[in-house]
Design goal:
It is a single chain. With 443 residues, this protein is α/β, with parallel strands linked by helices. It folds into three domains: 112 residues, Rossmann fold; 147 residues, Rossmann fold, CATH 3.40.50.300; 140 residues, no CATH class. 47% of the residues lie in helices and 14% in strands. The protein has 20 helices and 16 strands. The strands form five sheets. The protein has a five-stranded parallel beta sheet with strand order 2-1-3-4-5, with helices on both faces. A five-stranded parallel beta sheet has the order 7-10-13-6-14. Strand 11 and strand 12 form a beta hairpin. Helix 1 crosses helix 5 and helix 3 runs parallel beside helix 4. The longest helix has 17 residues. The protein starts with 5 loop residues before the first strand and ends in an 11-residue tail after the last helix. The relative contact order is 0.08.
Length: 443
């Protein structure tokens, strides 16, 4: 679903309409002219609502009506005549700003649009680096979706930044002043996930010596991010469906219903449609999660972002390690550009961190340029693509490498991931690409 941010204008005279229209054109925002009775139908995907009152209007009543109809969309009122008492009542009703007119159109725009401008440009741009069409589209989608309370499903390959995107979605939303709670559904056994999600009462099971607040309860009023949602057991899928449908839940060991007030954002690198067809994931839960969908672009589809992304990550990683930002050697830069990045941004971060460490230790000239990516990434056998097609020889080499490492780790993916220095989810994804190989592995 591609969502375009909207600017809502109600009864705005031509003088100010022209200024807002120019701003919207530069910001990639659609201008919608509506009235007080139809604003609710446009409040989805909107970043700002501007209403111009006229003499004789019940400005306080109109403001309260619009705040209710526009929901969480920031509302700015332009008024030619307003008392201090009325202004206080309007602000108390939830209006973000009241601007007295007549005034220069540029002044009105400068006061009315800063929050929407921050949503569209500043926050996503600082966190989502790049100017490719895919990243620009992602920023606009996040700004449009952030004002909603709908459930969001973030999909994409491992390492594309689904967790970061969920955090940005929360930061841009009206819930940003409340907590962002993250639960990795693949990181715990089924019984532990249930306790983590719903909480438990004292004595609910062996070892439950005190009551525990679950993630749903902890995220009250904020955002609950369920990562790797495709890994949930069938039993927990059923319970989560009930929570999403009825907005109620119980702690483990309790029959007292509690109301859920968190917004749910879920993420997966699995093909949930195929999982539904295979009976591994509930169809009704999939539909409940897939209200709004955000697809993360893989790095290989936005290679024009690679130079600026590399420099940004180098500064971030070097700052965290407390060392100077190294200069990228031309040969290594060419290797970076040629690599297919099956592990996406996460793989790039791992490669750059190891490069910085080697550079700081005086080992940057070894190995030879052609071997650098292979040495710094999972293995030199990582597959490459030719015109988007996976080469058969590379797939065979990767399978042999993974089989050998998996056998050396006794089939334990966690042990193997620690040895190779990569994320477990990345390794699981690479293993899943090879038929029957997953059968010989365990988490």
């Amino acid at each position: 679903m591609q969502l375009i941010p909207r600017l809502l204008l109600i009864d705005v005279s031509h003088r100010y309409y022209s200024a807002f229209a120019r701003w919207a054109s530069e910001a990639g925002v659609e201008v919608v002219v509506c009235d007080r009775e139809t604003v609710a139908g446009y409040s989805r995907e909107s970043v700002l609502c501007v209403y111009q009152s006229f003499s004789g209007d019940d400005i306080v009543g109109s403001a309260r009506h619009l705040v209710n109809e526009a929901r969480s969309v920031p509302l700015v009122i332009l008024s030619p005549k307003i008392s201090i008492v009325e202004a206080a009542q309007i602000i108390e009703a939830g209006v973000r700003d009241v601007i007295q007119i007549p005034a220069a159109a540029e002044e009105v725009l400068a006061r009315a649009a800063p929050r929407a401008r921050r949503m569209i440009f500043d926050v996503p741009a600082q966190r989502l680096v790049g100017e490719s069409p895919a990243i620009q589209r992602l920023r606009k989608e996040l700004c449009a979706v952030s004002a909603l309370d709908s459930t969001v499903l973030i999909t994409g390959e491992t390492g594309t930044g689904k967790g970061l995107t969920a955090q940005i979605l929360h930061e841009l939303s009206p819930r940003s002043r409340r907590v962002f709670v993250h639960l990795d559904c693949s990181g715990l056994a089924g019984s532990l996930i249930e306790s983590e999600l719903f909480g438990h009462e004292r004595g609910a099971f062996t070892g439950a010596v005190a009551p525990r607040v679950g993630r749903i309860e902890a995220a009250a009023g904020g955002t609950l991010f369920l990562d790797e949602i495709g890994e949930l057991s069938p039993a927990l899928q059923s319970k989560l469906l009930r929570v999403l449908q009825d907005q109620v839940y119980e702690r483990v060991g309790s029959n007292r219903p509690r109301t859920m007030s968190a917004r749910v954002v879920a993420a997966t690198n699995n093909d949930l449609e195929s999982a539904v067809e295979a009976g591994r994931f509930r169809r009704d839960l999939y539909f409940r999660l897939n209200v709004v969908r955000i697809e993360m672009p893989p790095l290989r589809e936005r290679t024009e972002d690679l130079p600026v992304l590399v420099q940004s990550l180098l500064r971030t990683i070097a700052g965290r390690l407390g060392v100077a930002v190294p200069t990228i050697e031309p040969a290594f830069r060419e290797d970076l550009a040629r690599h297919d990045w099956p592990g996406n941004v996460r793989e790039l971060m791992n490669v750059l961190e190891r490069y910085i460490v080697r550079h700081h230790a005086g080992l940057a000239d070894e190995p030879s340029p052609n071997d650098r990516i292979g040495q710094l990434s999972i293995a030199s056998s990582l597959p490459h693509r030719q015109n988007g097609t996976l080469l058969r020889s590379d797939r065979i080499n990767e399978r042999r490498f993974l089989e050998a490492e998996l056998a050396a780790a006794g089939g334990n993916i966690s042990r193997m991931a620690r040895k190779l220095g990569i994320a477990r989810s990345t390794l699981r994804y690479r293993i899943s690409l090879h038929e029957n190989l997953r059968e010989n592995s365990q988490d």
